[in-house]
Amino acid sequence: MSRPSGAPDETSDVVIVGGGASGLSLAHHLAETGTSTVTLVEAPDGPRRPPERTWCYWERGTGDFAEAVSASWSRLRVHGTDGRTITVDPSPQRYRMLRSTAFERLVHSRLARSPGSRVLRATADTVHDTADGAEVHCTTPDGRALTLRARHVFDSRPLRSLPPARTQLMQHFRGWFVRTDADRFDPAVADLMDFRVPQPRHGLAFGYTLPLAPDRALVEYTEFSRAPLTTTAYEAALAHYCRDILGLGAFTVESAEQGVIPMTDARFTRRTGPAVFRIGTAGGATRPSTGYTFAAVQRQSRAVAAALRDGRVLVPT
Ligand SMILES: Cc1cc2nc3c(=O)[nH]c(=O)nc-3n(C[C@H](O)[C@H](O)[C@H](O)COP(=O)(O)OP(=O)(O)OC[C@H]3O[C@@H](n4cnc5c(N)ncnc54)[C@H](O)[C@@H]3O)c2cc1C
Prior knowledge:
Layout: E1 10-17, H1 21-33, E2 38-42, E3 54-60, E4 69-73, E5 75-79, E6 85-88, E7 93-99, H2 100-112, E8 118-121, E9 123-130, E10 133-139, E11 145-155, E12 168-180, E13 189-194, E14 204-213, E15 216-225, H3 231-245, E16 251-264, E17 271-273, E18 276-278, H4 294-309
Parallel strand pairs: 1-2, 1-11, 2-8, 5-13, 11-18
Antiparallel strand pairs: 3-7, 4-7, 5-6, 9-10, 10-11, 12-15, 12-16, 13-14, 14-15, 17-18
Helix pairs in contact: 1-2, 1-4
The structure holds flavin-adenine dinucleotide.
The site of flavin-adenine dinucleotide (FAD) has 32 residues, from helix 1, strand 2, strand 3, strand 9 and strand 16.
């Protein structure tokens, strides 16, 4: 039987476009409240889908995602340019690390247990308001067109360009997951900013070391400046940091991650139509002074899920 033209292929209460940090978080909190059916649309493997990333955030207590947390720290350290250190205990908060694939597994299995909710692998092409909600037009990995209809759509697709701003810096970095031949790290202490690295002519640079075991850590070189570096330049900065500043001795690089996070006072549009909202970095959830996004996205997702449960509409803050 053919479908009448204009009818949606699928309907749910909420469609979330993009299954990264903000999309997964909102899906998780909606599944927890259990009052809305959710379709989470995530791009198929390819250029739109980012590689595995690490998300760190501050949280009290045991937190919502304990089974996906790969490490956490209750002592945090900063190294000045002169080598002096400050170590603090941020309790009652802890600093936690999630790998994006572990978080994705957790949320996907949570959705699989929620009747009427699901994860759809497809590319969202357009999002439109309709008389009683919104529609998302998608293309499936085998090239089929699919229309999803919902009462509310939350869109986390990255913006093509940032809105105009007075200040626009980038936090750009590359990190290595290293394994050292000898024990070199104290797994109890995370080094958030190590300013002993050579400083660039414009902006600032620091090292960041998250120990996972006495012989394993994520070590990053980060700059706050106007433009990213080449991969070769990051690798040179990381090699110098690991060898000459941290004194790691012999080590192997098991994997790497690289990224650019906007640091801007631009105003982001958070509602693009009566039933269409932007979330995550695209909705301005990234803190301009630090680039941290994950913790803000949890607060945002909890508030949106609670509002929908109570029959209200809340523009994500
Ligand atoms: C390497 C890296 C490390 C970071 N580490 C931290 C950290 O430690 N702590 C922190 O707070 N912040 C961190 N950030 C900043 C921020 O938390 C992340 O950028 C975070 O992923 C932003 O979440 P998001 O949902 O806005 O975007 P994303 O997580 O990028 O999610 C967007 C999703 O949309 C999907 N998508 C894109 N286009 C389409 C389409 N057309 N159809 C369907 N799906 C689509 C993508 O596949 C992606 O999964 C980091 C950023 C990077 C790049």
